[in-house]
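ENTRY TYPE: paired fold submission
RECORD: A
CONTENT: sequence, then structure tokens
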Amino acid sequence: MQTLPPIPAADTALKRRIFWSRFALVISSIIIVLLLVSGIFYTAEMAAAVREISPGCTFRKLTGISCPGCGGTRAAGALLRGDIWGAFQYNLLLPISLLALLVEYIRLWLVHFTHNNRWMHSRTYIRFFVIYAWLVCIWFIARNIFGI
């Protein structure tokens, strides 16, 4: 009867790293859900706290032009209140950015929990974020030329 060789130490290190990355993903998901729930129930209080803490847009203070994120805090507040149109009026890019983050978060869950490596470096995924990067650049230029 032949015995199998022992599992190398590298496999246990890899398993440990996978465990901790999955653990971090689950913990961050719980924190995001808690923040969203508290933001929905305490919108006014959270908006006031953010206004007190926020120093404003440093890029705009230094250069005099709007960055792609200007108005993002007000847009996030509008989204928490359920005012999607208002969020688009404050900052067109924020709802699109949140959609991009949601896509990335779903991809991370698929990579870590389906044991399928095709989600790791999908061409569609890469194209999506290249298009997103172009949208950020176009938004940056358009909002400063047209004063949006």
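RECORD: B
CONTENT: sequence, then structure tokens
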Amino acid sequence: MPIEFRFHPEKAVEAAAVFLKLHGKPMKYLGLLKMLYIADRIALERMEQPITGDRYVSMDYGPVLSGVYDLLKENPVDDALPLWSKFISPRSDHYVALMADPGDDDLCEAEEEIIRQVYQKFGQLDPFHVAEWTHGLPEWQNPYGSRLPITVEDLLRHLGKSDAEIGEIQREAGREAYLDGVLNG
């Protein structure tokens, strides 16, 4: 059974907002997409769970969070678009901006620290340079104009996790999904 995390739109919005606040002005949406992916990847490596719980895909400009990409394109993702649209502006000339502060109640301190570290390293770079950098990540495959899924298991292997560690992450994700289903019906 593949590892799947539950997408947390609240955390995706809060993480995007932290990046936009750190930037202090509208940001190219490609840059935001790249940094959100990198932050999720680092969280998976350090904490064995991602920040957003989104699905990963390889696209022409590197790996991205599939749901966040769709939200930036104003495509519905479950029931997340109204929440996203309340805080993150629609794309305008390749830029997005923070319209209101969603706070950071859903992000833990370690997640916020990862976001700050990612912004410090990549936030002032040209997003196309960051996209090119992500082409060097082992999980990225050229999709030639399409989308190719990146499995969590493959990503974890590329991050150096053993089969035993991947099995434990899979069990924990399964427990969380079960509890989430029980609590949220």
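NOTES ON RECORD B: Residues 136 and 174 are 31 Å apart (CA to CA). The longest strand covers residues 56-59.
STATUS: closed
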